[in-house]
Amino acid sequence: MNTFRLQLRFLVPLVLTLVAATYLALPLIDRLTLDRFGHDLDLRGALVSDALADTIARALTDPKNARLQALLDRTAQDERLLAASLCAPDGRLLARTVRFPASLSCSQAQQTVARADSMLHIEGSSVHVGMYPVNGGSGRVGDLVLLRDTSAIERRSRQTQGYLIVLIAALGVAIAIVTVVVAQLSWRGWVSGARALLRGEGLLRPLRSPTPELAPLAADLRSRLRDLDDEYRRARGPEAEWSPDRLRSLLHTQLRGDEIIVVSNREPYIHESTPAGIVVKRPASGLVTAVAAGTATITATTADGGKTATAAITVTAASSFTVNFFRPATWGTAIKIYWWGALPAGVLADGTWPGVAMTNLGTGWYSYTFTNITSTKWCSRW
Description:
By secondary structure, the chain is of the alpha+beta class.
């Protein structure tokens, strides 16, 4: 059903366009056909008039017009010539053949010839009217009026219109078939690409052979899914403390497919002050941070031999610090920073993915300044 609707979006405008083209083209083709044949008939009429000019001039010397009548009758024997007559220069009808309409005067014939189509409807059929001057030795002796049957022209015009309709219909069928095939292939391609994206291909990891037309869709889906995941995590409330499992989960979900550079200023262990005393924690990264200014002695004990080593550490208070990052050559310029686990706890909440923009220092270096904390974990991305 979806494919059929997609095809209708192409086929309906195509059908409407072809119908409109046919509706506009048929009258134009008919007009051009009639003009072409009308011009041909006028050329033939002028040729007949010139050929009969001397004979007509001699026939006019007969007071009874017998010779003129015989000449017109012989001329009208042509299968395409319906009737003929001769008009005097003053507009009188001198002679006419039997089939020449008695109601058609010389002035009416002249008015018909002056029109664009030069057509008359006589006895239910269309007739072309032509009026041609006859010049004798002493000048113009009259006008030869020829009536021609245009039924053959109308048949030819109808045939031309039929050929045009068949041509447009065949063209429409060919275009419709191509449109349906292209729509079907396009629909299948988009469905296949969308399914691949939903399976995570190109979304959570880059495609091996990226498809250019699906790249914008993959980027939009990736961004939207991360936004939804971030909203879900915020709705759940504060996350539990960082652990190796949580760090691995972050790398395999939100950061999958990205280049990650982790930078930290922490020492090998975390020491937390509790009512029961100092508690040593081993974070996922194996690094620690100071929780307050002062001096502390850290003792490290090996797990395999019970060997120990101590070190005196002096921590000074700091209200702010700046981290710097050098952009890899393959990265874009919109570098962002994301942080988590800032200390002292409760001062700076975990950042919102995908982070905030870093300051571009030029020459590939970027920086970001943290205030009111002593340390944090952070990573850069683009």
